[in-house]
């Protein structure tokens, strides 16, 4: 049967002589694997269509799980993401999250549009350290692990003085903080941004200017959250970490647990 759908390439694997199997993330049909014959041959019409991050219109035949490309055209190449190592590293991380963290049942139309908006924002040169944190928040929401940020995850109190605990489910109040001595102390601005990230639609993101110390806290909080709840080791994270070290961000404010052993989250 012949299918036709739009999608963004989130993975490409070499296959046989000059072929590629790509995975596209679609707004209508979750994720779909497609064999692109000859995609690695220099003269292939579909070499660029099959590249990572390409947003295209794909027509393919399908009988089993895997489709076989019949025709296609590029709607948006996101060339800016491939030409710039910094943007490329963040975009690869976002694509790998869609590929490996987001399950088939969670690959919704809404998340597709958040992913596309993430690529667009990165391509436009918006601050990747903010764009990617928002997208991480969209992913944890999509897979059912959104942190509680407005009330204590342990007792439900809404009065302030919160710390951030990945183990206990997000914000924890002063009375409950003894349950997780390693919970992070975050600046008011960091809390505010985490709450905004939870609610914002990435398509509506304007320019946003955040201090490096706050960005470092956001990263630590999201990384701890994702490590604890998703437990995925993504290849692209390691590369991104090496890349970000070049920025030499200041260390986030942390509270060491009583044994002095600080949780490694970097
Ligand atoms: Zn509490």
From TrEMBL:
- Asked whether the UniProt record includes DNA repair among its keywords, one would answer yes
DNA replication/recombination mediator RecO N-terminal domain segment(s): 1-78
Among the Pfam families in the record, one is: RecO_N
Function statement = Involved in DNA repair and RecF pathway recombination.
Q: Which PANTHER family match?
A: DNA REPAIR PROTEIN RECO (PTHR33991)
Q: Provide the family line.
A: Belongs to the RecO family.
Name of the protein described by the UniProt record: DNA repair protein RecO
